[in-house]
Each structure stands twice: as structure tokens, then as C-alpha cells.
Amino acid sequence: MTALDDRSVQPTVTSGPIMGSQKVYREVTDPDSARTLRVPHRRVGLDNGSHIDLYDTSGPYTDTDAAPGIDVHAGLERMREEWVRDREPVDGAVTQAAYAKAGVITPEMRYIAAREGMDPEFVRSEVAIGRAVIPANRCHPESEPMIIGKGFLVKVNANIGNSAVTSSVAEEVEKMVWATRWGADTIMDLSTGKRIHETREWIIRNSPVPVGTVPIYQALEKVDGDPASLTWEIYRDTVIEQAEQGVDYMTVHAGVLLRYVPLTARRVTGIVSRGGSIMAAWCLAHHEESFLYTRFEELCEIFRRYDITFSLGDGLRPGSIADANDEAQFAELRTLGELTHIARAHDVQVMIEGPGHVPLHKIAENVRLEEELCGEAPFYTLGPLATDIAPGYDHITSAIGAAQIAWHGTAMLCYVTPKEHLGLPDRDDVKTGVITYKLAAHSADLAKGHPRAQEWDDTLSTARFEFRWQDQFHLALDPETAQSFHDQTLPAEPAKTAHFCSMCGPKFCSMKITQDVRRYAEENGLSTVAAIDKGMRDKSEEFADRGKRVYLPMAD
Amino acid sequence: MTALDDRSVQPTVTSGPIMGSQKVYREVTDPDSARTLRVPHRRVGLDNGSHIDLYDTSGPYTDTDAAPGIDVHAGLERMREEWVRDREPVDGAVTQAAYAKAGVITPEMRYIAAREGMDPEFVRSEVAIGRAVIPANRCHPESEPMIIGKGFLVKVNANIGNSAVTSSVAEEVEKMVWATRWGADTIMDLSTGKRIHETREWIIRNSPVPVGTVPIYQALEKVDGDPASLTWEIYRDTVIEQAEQGVDYMTVHAGVLLRYVPLTARRVTGIVSRGGSIMAAWCLAHHEESFLYTRFEELCEIFRRYDITFSLGDGLRPGSIADANDEAQFAELRTLGELTHIARAHDVQVMIEGPGHVPLHKIAENVRLEEELCGEAPFYTLGPLATDIAPGYDHITSAIGAAQIAWHGTAMLCYVTPKEHLGLPDRDDVKTGVITYKLAAHSADLAKGHPRAQEWDDTLSTARFEFRWQDQFHLALDPETAQSFHDQTLPAEPAKTAHFCSMCGPKFCSMKITQDVRRYAEENGLSTVAAIDKGMRDKSEEFADRGKRVYLPMAD
């Protein structure tokens, strides 16, 4: 009996399309295998008859006919199973990096290219040089391929996982579905409590996005929470157990060296990474380098067999503004750079985790050094928080840093919820954290000039300008909240087409005048400012004719 | 009978200290007048016996003995009345700029210096060259002096005001008290509905912070909402009416020139400023430049008599990402630059309003151009929003831009609430908006290296590291929310001193180990990393002695 046969677990997952959207699958043919790839998008239909297709992470749960027929005991369709089965290893390696280096464009790469609106060859070349990674364990065939790299859309990770204090298996499955519904590109299962293996099995079998873990957490459970009792053998067996389940990327704190620990002694907040503190404790207890560092090549060989991506952990990241960019942090980063090159030599994909708490003026240096030391491996940062003084609002303090660091080149952002530093996020916190990070990521996509990013902003702003309220709501990252905020002041149905809102009222709406100006220009075929200026003079007379009212009655 | 005699208005205002804080007044002597200035601070007392004094905008409402004795019918104490009365004009001018240029350090400047921890002579010199302004109408003696300039703490403005749709006088007074309680440095009364004069009177008489307005809104009410019917005389009389009431700064959209209006015709969202659209409508209707522009010097003479500060409005600011940094926006900015120099020649203080909606990579240019064209007059921006796609979360999209632009030199940020683009903010939205902007402003203070900014972060992070939970809550921008989030998972009183929290539980807390490391180092008087490293080896043995447990039981 597998975990999913356990009928005592009855997850109820959210399903059905997002308000105002429908799921569409665009079909792409893979010329090598002649397979048809079905690439998901969130299509927002507009009142003016057009539509826009947005990147979609939510899996089959948002299919139009999904509600309520999803059987979580069956798990998702194993879409990638044949792809994985049918291809030959390259020099014994089955990783996306190995194929990319050999010049092979995998179905995953074609799928990603269609998702991102990029050329498949660009996807391949970015993976080949290690500037992008495709986390896709061969044992997680249910996942929809996605890519993490500075040349692509900035991605967002959401952490879930039960702890000793709260949460059940069913709750965690729903949190995964919920987080991906709002846009989480990957999720990390950070469970530390009971039923850790079963929880993960449920999550992976039902997850349309890559799943990451920190294996040292489960290893620590196996030694009853005593870091000094950890051994390579216990850790290795835990990694293999998780690899077989299909974990797509694993955080490994292999850069915490013994000699770096004293560098944290004068810090304001010392070591704030769980994994970092576990490994520091091990190093202190044994007074030698950790097995993560000394056995790193053996770990690479395991990762290579499954195509697991390294997420090299920043165990010494700063936990406060005072500790940002210090010697402990950058010493570890240099070691992560060495490990990156070792992993790449094994054809294993690598990304690098980053801080944490960093003031705005010290953010760019983090990206510059990471790229220099780690051969441009994708950077994956937690925020960073731009100040420490706002517990309860750290989704915002960190979104400020996250947008900034992503603009400079961070490829994936780990979300922070309003409960950071204070407690465990609930369902609402998960949604708030994901939406906050999606808007930060999109702000960076705009600043980086991603070819398809601004279309979304322009479509929404045009709807706003044209008083297409429903379109504005449907185009929002969170349509339900946008509409409910509007309806708190003007709930009646006619307000959805009104040419004003409660902010300024009908007399003070600033958007109407430009509509008049523009309509006039278009009707008269004017194409230059000088010509429009002529139009202005006519317009002046027209205004007088209308009784000098700019804002016509609503019925107009 | 004045407005405040009207007993049908019964504002109930929030009073009493912020949780965990007490109001203290530091006494400073003004050597010129021998007066004692009482400068307010929010003092947070800590469990370890120390305390920190924070900048405080909340006025007497948070005095320890304030609750519930504040009589809003009496108005606040007229602290500045004597200061204003006793000083001689300089060449006929009574503005802070005139005194500063004459080398006079006013009591307002000394008060500000004590508030900000700066030298009084620095305050004077910044005002003299126009790089900072002190909005302080002689007719608003109740206000506590404050300064807006890039050399000082970044300030936050909160907009309040009734509209035709909702809100009463009493509600607006409470919104003012509420917004300043959470840190609003100025408030703008943007009322457009009924009882506009009375609402403003109530607000000003009870406001400890400068009050700004947009006089064209009231002028438009006087002509029944028809922009084309506006005249210089109606506008002038409105300005004088508001000046006599004590409005400290006024937004004037004098840069909207006739020839700029066609530049907005091809925009995605045209003109989105209310004042800008009113003036554009006037220009179109009359086909000539507005009276704000043609009568600007007369306006300067009025402002000069009261010491009202110009806030030169950006009527053509971009309302979408697509329209950022376009010719319409920068054409108007050049005109604002010309007007700045005219106002300064009249010894009138000036700040410049800025956008709006701007992607991250176009933010710095806004500051650079503003400083170049407007002689470094303080920049006062609305956000900007870094993306358009998140209605319902625009306090966050705009905080991302606000932190960025303030780091580059913006002196004051106009807040944005979660209801932006959707509806009118309620009490909770006002608080969320203010707290969000305070953390954005503080992030910029850190990045700019304000001498006292980081002390707050370090004090809070030290409390966090030392598991002083109550201190962490009390030091937060919003202590109540921080504590309530913590208590949702661990409500019991012992959890307030526990050496762990619900996030990781007792076994996984990363903060404990560094405490051990640091304590050891201090006890042994070790001062270099090498010496600490020696300590590490001893520590290794000590760990073994303790049974290799890093995390000791709570009772330890």
C-alpha cells in the first residue's frame, strides 16, 4: 500500500478556474519525437472581444472541468513518464544539463520555450552553460516543465510544510494547490514533524510544479534532533529516499565550513538558517568539515542519476541589516562557487541560495559577487528584507528587496509571508505571500525588459482607462480581492460599467478628458503633435458648444 | 461661532500611548529667545533596562495622560503662536526660507534639529538653498515643526478627505489622528464633498502635523464642477480662505501648459491627475495658458505672507507603466523648474510632486532630472507603482517604487492604500498605507545612511536574537499586529520568553547556537577571529560534555 492508498487522508483541494479566466492548452509539436506538447496558459477574455494568455502555474486544478473531479488519491497524470523513459543517457548522464551540453533540445525545453515565448535553442544554450536550470527529477513525471534563469521570467517559490506544532497531511496538500493557484512556480516542503515521508509523497504525486526539500531536516528527525549524531550514511540514505519520491531540487548547506563559524560570533543575529545552524553545530561538535562538504562528489553522483538540481544553501546568510554582506556571508559564497564548478563537472544542475536581510544599497553587490564566484548559476534569494523594523509586514519589507535583487539578476525569489519571524503562515498568509512575490517578480520582469511582460500591464491599464471594470478585475493578479475592494464602496451592478468610481466621484474623474482628446485625434486621422494641436483649437470650440462641461452625464 | 463650536460634530479620536511605548519630551533651549522647546519622541523601554527614542509624529494624542481627555472642540495648544508673533520680517518676508537666507536659525529649525538629531546650522543651510522645506503656515501654530529634504529622514504623507460619496467631518478628524498615530508626517485634506471648509477647520485646529490641500478642488465646487468656469479671482479667494485657516502647503498644477495637453493624446492612460485634468480642461476650453501659470507671481506673494509652501503638482504624471518618463511628463517638469526659481526669488518654499507609475529601471532618471531642472527642490512622489497588474495590492507595488525613489533622493512619499484604483480607503486601509510607507521610507533612510536610522533595526534584531519577544513587538512599527500574529500560534504567556517560536519549534531554532558561540567568546575576552577559533576547539569538547545537544531544554 502506498501513501496515496491511505483513505484516512482526505484532502479537499481548491479547484476550478480563477475568476474571469479559463485554462487553455496551446499545442506544440516536438519535432524529434513527433509528440504533441500541451502547454497551459491562463486566458483572460475581455469585454472588447480580445484576450490575453498569461503564464500559468496552477496545473489541472484550474481546468474548466476540474471542479470537483480531481482525485488526489490517483495523483496527477504522469505526462513526462514517456519522455524520460524513451531517451538515451549522454555519457551515462540523464540530466537536462547533459542533454543541453550535447546539443539535444529535450521535450522539457520545447515546452518551456512555448511557455515563456522564447526560442527553444535559447533555452538549451542557457541550460548548457548553467545560467538556467530545469528542476525535473525523473521520478516526478507529473510536473509541468519550467525553467529558472535570469534570461527568463522571474520565478517565485512558496514554502509549505508541517511542523511539530501544527498542520496535517491534508492541509499541506491543499496549501500546495493553493500556492500554485496564485502563481507559485515551485514549492518547498519544509516539514519537520511527524509523517514527513507520507506528507511529501502526497505533495509530489499531486504537484504540477517542481518540489524542493532540505534533506537535513528529515535526517535530523532520524537522529532524534541531535545534530552531532548526524552521519554521511544517514544523510545519504535520506537523500536517496527523497530522490526516489521525486524531489526536484534539494537545499544542501555544504558551504558552512568550520573556519567560517567564528566569523558569525560578532554578528547581531548570528546564524539564522536552520540548516546552517545544524551544520555549524556538527562542525563544532566534531571539529572537522561536514560530510556535506567532504562527500560532495558522492552527492553529485546521486543527484546525477535522478537529475536533481542542487540548491546550494546559504547557511550563513545575514539575519539582520547589521549582518548584511559580511565576511561570514561572502566566505561561504566563495565556497559555494567552488562547489558549483564541481557539480557542473558531473553534469548536475546548480542554483545558489541568497539572503536574507540586506539594505537597498548593498543588494547589487550580492548579485555581482554571486555571478562572479558561481559562474552565473541562477541566484535564488529569500527576499531580502530591506529593513528589520516591521514584523507583521515582512512580506512587504522583503518584496522591496526582492524586486530590487530580481531586477539585478536573481532568477527565483523565495516568498516571505506576513507571519515571518512571528508564526506559521495560514492559508490567507500563503496567498498574500505568493501574490506579493508575483508582483515583485513581475516588476523585475518589466525592468529587465522581458519581451512579454509589459503586455499584461498595458492590457490592464487600457481596461482601467476605458472603464472596463470587470476586465480590470479579471486581469488582476488577484481578481477576487480587486472586485471585493471595489464593491465595498460601489456594490451595485451599474457601477461595473460606470465612467467613474468612488475615489473621485463622477465630477472629478480625470480619465474622461483624455478619452475625448484621443478620440478626436483618431477620428481626424491626426498623426503628429502639431496636427493634434490644431485639433485642440477645434476642440476648444466644441467644448464651448457642449456648454463647457468636460464630464458628460453617465448616460452619455 | 467657529466651526469648532458646532457641538453636532462629536469626533471620537484614538488616544493613549502606542503599545509598549511612552511619549517623552526632550527639552532644548533656543539660545536666541531663551525659550524651552519640548521635542516629542516615542520612547520604547526594553526588558533589559535600556530604551530607544524614536521619531514621533503623533502629537499630544499619544501622551501618557491623554486618554481620554483630549477636547477636540478646543483644538491643540498653539505652541508656535509666540514664536511667530515675536519675530521681525526679513525684507518684508516671514518665511522660513527668508530667515534661513538671512542667517537666522528659527525656533522651528532648532526644534527640527533636535527631532532629527542634526545640527541646527545644517537645517538652516538646507532651507536657505531650498534643498529642504519647513511647511509651517503662520496661521497653523498648533503644528510641531518638521522638515522635508533629502538630507533628513524620508517623510510620509497620508491623504484623507471626504468625497461626494462617503464620510463625515468626525470621521476625517479621526482619520487624521489615526494616520499621524502610525507615523504620517503630513496629511493632505483632499475633500471634495459638502462642508469642505468646516472639515478643514476641524482638521487643522487639531493637527500636530502640517496640512496640505489642493485648492482647485474647492474652487471647482464653487463653480458647480465646471472647470471652464474657473477664474483667477475665484481661485485666489479660495487660496486666501485656506491660507487664513492655516494650510501649510498647497498643490498647484501650474505646469500644465496648453501645448503639453496634446502630448497625452497617445498615452495608454492619458491624464490621471484630478488637478491636471481640471487644468487641461480649462486650457482646452479657453485655448490659453491657465491662470495658475499666468498669475504665478501673484500667487507667490500670497504664499509669502503666510509662509505657505508650494507643492508644484505633476498634473501630467504617468498613470501606467506604458506612459512613464514620456515627453508630456518631462515637459511639465521643465516648467515646474522655471516656476521653482520664480518662487524662490519671492522667498517662498517649494517642493515638486512626482509620479505615479514607473518601472524600476526608469525611477532614477526621475530624480536626476527633477534635481537638475528644479534646483534640488525636495521631491515629493506618489509611490511610484512598479507595475500595474496588482489592483488590491497597490500599497505594495508602490512601496517597491517608493523605497527605490526615496533611496535616490525623494524627500517625501505620498502613501498609497490597498484601495488605490478601486475605492475609498477605510480606517484599516489608512493604517496599512501608513505603515507600508513608513517601512519603505525607513528602508531608504538605511540605504542613504541616515546617522540614526540603523540603530532602530539593530535594537529590534538584538531583541529578536535574545528572544525578548515583548521587546520585539514593542519595537515594531506596528506592535499590535506583531503581537497578534505571534499569539495566533503560541498564545500562552510563557511563549513570550520562550527560546523558540512556532516557526521551527524548540528543536530547530537556529538562533541559539550563535548565542553559545558569542557568550563563550566574550567570557574568554577573545578579540580576534584566530582567538575565537581556538575557542571553537574548546567548545567542541564542551559540546561533547553536554551530551552533544546544541539546543538545551527551555528551563536551561
Give the CA-CA distance, first to last residue of chain A: 68 Å
Strand pairing plus helix content of chain A: what structural class? Answer: alpha/beta
Q: pLDDT average of chain A, as an integer?
A: 90
β-strand number of chain A: 13
Strand order in the sheet with the most strands of chain A? 6-7-8-9-10-11-12-13
Strand content of chain A: 5-15%
For this structure, the quaternary state is: homodimer
Largest interface: A-B, 134 and 133 residues
Biggest pleated-sheet summary of chain A = 8 strands, parallel, barrel
Describe the protein:
- The structure is a homodimer of 556-residue chains.
- In chain A, helix 14 links the parallel strand 12 (379-382) and strand 13.
- Chain A has 20 helices and 13 strands.
- In chain A, the strands form 3 sheets. Chain A has an 8-stranded parallel barrel, surrounded by 6 helices. In chain A, strands 1-2-3 form a 3-stranded antiparallel beta sheet. In chain A, strands 4-5 form a two-stranded antiparallel ribbon.
- With 556 residues, chain A is an alpha/beta fold.
- Chain A has helices at 81-86, 96-101, 107-116, 120-128, 169-181, 196-205, 215-222, 232-245, 274-286, 291-294, 296-306, 327-345, 363-373, 394-408, 427-448, 453-465, 469-475, 479-489, 511-523, 529-545; strands at 21-30, 35-45, 51-55, 132-133, 148-149, 155-160, 186-189, 211-213, 249-252, 309-312, 350-354, 379-382, 412-414.
- Chains A and B meet through helix 9, helix 14, helix 15, helix 16 and helix 17 of A and helix 9, helix 14, helix 15, helix 16 and helix 17 of B.
